[in-house]
Amino acid sequence: VPTMSIVFGDTTRFSVHDDVTNVGRADVAQNWQPELDVISLGGGDPNFGVSRHQAVIRRDGAAFSVIDVGSTNGTYVNGHLLEYNKASDLHDGDTLAFGAFSGTIKIG
Questions:
Q1: CA–CA separation, 30 vs 36, rounded Å?
Q2: Are 71 and 98 in contact (CB under 8 A)?
Q3: pTM for the predicted model, two decimal places
Q4: Taking the CA atoms of the chain, what radius of gyration do you get in angstroms?
Q5: Are 36 and 20 in contact, with CB atoms under 8 Å apart?
Q6: pLDDT per residue over 39-71, tens digit each?
Q7: How far is it, in rounded angstroms, from Cα 60 to Cα 35?
Q8: Which of 25, 67, 88, 104 is the most buried (most CB within 10 A)?
Q9: What is the 3-class SS of the chain, one letter each residue?
């Protein structure tokens, strides 16, 4: 089964292990802890504009996709702003950005 990871900056890597991975930033007051908390990966700068509920990454067999779930500053694949609640396929080498916080997709 292929695996997918997102490489942020030069070395920080997040590996997708589940069929559904929530992306955003944690909120203790709301008891919300997404699987991919961008704050822990260096996305805590307010200029990055990452929402608590930013996006969902889905794995379906060997295929991966991302869905923006209504974020404030948008989710982008290769620089293209995604429509809310519309899946976009992810491929090896794609750039995936949550607001201004971006990484590169590695599938293999």
A1: 16
A2: yes
A3: 0.93
A4: 13
A5: no
A6: 888 777 777 889 999 999 999 999 999 999 999
A7: 17
A8: 25
A9: CCCEEEEECCCEEEEECCCEEEEECCECCCCECCCEEHHHHCCCCHHHCCCCCCEEEEEECCEEEEEECCCCCCEEECCEECCECCCEEECCCCEEEECCEEEEEEEC
Strand order in the sheet with 63-68: 36-37, 20-24, 55-60, 63-68, 88-90
Q: Counting every residue, how long is the chain? A: 108
CA distance 46 to 56: 21
With 90 as the cut, is the pLDDT of residue 2 above it? Answer: no
What 8-12 contacts at long range (C-beta under 8 Å, 24+ apart), as own/partner pairs, is: 8/41, 8/42, 8/43, 8/101, 8/102, 8/103, 9/42, 9/103, 12/41, 12/42, 12/103
